[in-house]
Design brief:
Blueprint lengths: L22 H41 L9 H56 L3 H4 L6 H10 L39
Length: 190
């Protein structure tokens, strides 16, 4: 225990204690490093958002002029021409629609007159004691008959896809797979 020498801190000479230079700058570098390591991604995101906000506001400011531009006579003439052209197109479309409506009304009145005539014929035949179902036939217009004959054509050359004796459960059909019943008894084999 004799080898250990104990000295007081106050007894040390002043030369051994060297003053730390730029202590404030060292503290700032450490705090900035801690801040970036903790919140680096957040700071980056905030910086990008502020940049985008500034860009958006500058574009909006450039779009909105300070004083409204005066309209030139050419612009007014072009606007008037466009409006006239649109009005002419609207009139033309309205005329087409009116003609279609008139044609439809005429067809409707003709159908109503035909129905009235048929009802009168049925009533007269009933007065005479005849059956109204067999005597009066509803005449069809030429458009209806042409469309109905085209729809009602029977197909004469109909070829069946399979033979008449085809049964998919028998396994005889030329297919690559067939159905077989499962084995009887336990499936474990033992």
């Amino acid at each position: 225990m004799d080898d250990v020498e104990i000295t007081d801190v106050d007894d040390l000479p002043e030369m051994e204690k060297a003053p730390i230079k730029n202590q404030d700058l060292n503290f700032l570098s450490l705090s900035a490093e801690d801040l970036l390591s903790e919140y680096g991604w957040y700071l980056l995101a905030v910086t990008v958002l502020v940049y985008l906000l500034i860009q958006h506001l500058s574009k909006r400011r450039s779009r909105v002029p300070c004083s409204p531009p005066t309209q030139t006579p050419q612009d007014a003439v072009l606007v008037a021409r466009r409006q006239e052209a649109m009005e002419a197109a609207r009139r033309k479309m309205q005329e087409e629609l009116d003609t279609k409506a008139a044609i439809f009304r005429e067809k409707q009145t003709q159908q109503e007159q035909e129905k009235r005539r048929q009802k009168i014929e049925i009533w007269e035949s009933m007065q005479q004691g005849k059956s109204h179902k067999g005597t009066t036939k509803h005449p069809q217009t030429t458009e209806e008959t042409s469309s109905s004959t085209a729809v009602l054509k029977p197909k004469t050359d109909k070829k069946s896809l399979r033979s008449a004796d085809y049964n998919p459960l028998t396994g005889q059909g030329g297919g690559s797979c067939s159905w077989r019943p499962g084995r009887r008894g336990p499936s474990s084999g033992g």
